[in-house]
Amino acid sequence: MAATVIQRSPPFAEPIHADRIVSAKNPLLPPNGNRGAHDGADTEASNEAQTPFGSADLSTIHVDTHYWSCETLRPSANIQAFLKKDFDVSRLDEVYDLLWWAGRQVPPRPLHRLKMLGRKIVITEQADLHLVWSVESVFVKPLPDFFLIYSFWTTYICNDKELYESARGFVLSYIWLIRYKSDFEIAKEKWLLPSDLTWPVWRAFVESVWQRDVPSHPGPISKRYRYGELRISRLDQIYRFRPRFLLSHLMQGYLYSYSSYGGFFRREFAWLVVAFAYLSIVLSAMQVGLATYQLKDNDGFNKGSYGFSVASIIFPLAVITIALLLYIVLWLYHVITTFCAWLGGRKKERLTNSNVAATD
Description:
Elements: H1 51-54, E1 62-63, E2 72-73, H2 79-86, H3 90-94, H4 111-116, E3 120-123, E4 132-133, E5 137-140, H5 150-157, H6 161-177, H7 181-189, H8 199-212, E6 230-231, H9 232-241, H10 247-252, H11 261-268, H12 271-290, H13 293-296, H14 299-359
Parallel strand pairs: 3-5, 4-6
Antiparallel strand pairs: 1-2
């Protein structure tokens, strides 16, 4: 029995930016689809599929997340492989059953609303950080111009299920992020959209998405995009304490954002200031209470004051001991990972040298 072939199509209804030339037949085409300048000469119909791909917003080089591995990829040589890596959200898909702890299954808020909440919009080129937020900021991955090219979707995206669902969810997230002209202007200001994309073209693009699908019921998308914004501190907790234990996840969480041990301890142990202030207030209150006639001979209050005083002495010592042990563990972890990375680099260097010697 022959296998059923699933026909996938772009999430918008009409060819957008089909050849990057203004066409009376297609009012959705801006005069130039990419962020930088490019040759705007007429393109023959036979080269329609090649023109946008060569000038699309592909990065110059892709480096593996574990940068010390030196695993690199030239995007223009293998566009589909680059897209699968660049828009990979598998880290979030793997913990989908736990994402309720980090966010809600609602669309992301528009950009103007995020600014109202006092969050700074920070550009990220890492797809699994898209719409991940902290108290001060929210990460947003720019929308590349090739996602507005109909033939680019049919050539490189629609024939790969995982890439299709990831790219489709990413595009639909922008439908929710940019709802008003003010959102559009914020996105342009933050370099989230192609520089020559206009508001009328964006509105027409969204209308074409509505013709193909309903954004509130988007169909096949990566599980991550069933959620809107995700809180980074909760993602750290999920990765550190989820049932599938890994030492690297325990040490680094989801996003390791500390550049020094001092920054780590300042952020993770800031609550101690409040704890010590509370202990000081309670101890002062107990001291005053023991000086009153009503409480100085009260056996229960005296026992409670004694126990709390002893606990107040032990608590700081315990915290200092834990912090010292944590520092030692972190130091050993970083030393070991750095040494392993060095060994990997030396091994690769020796292999390269042996290959060069063999060709001489």
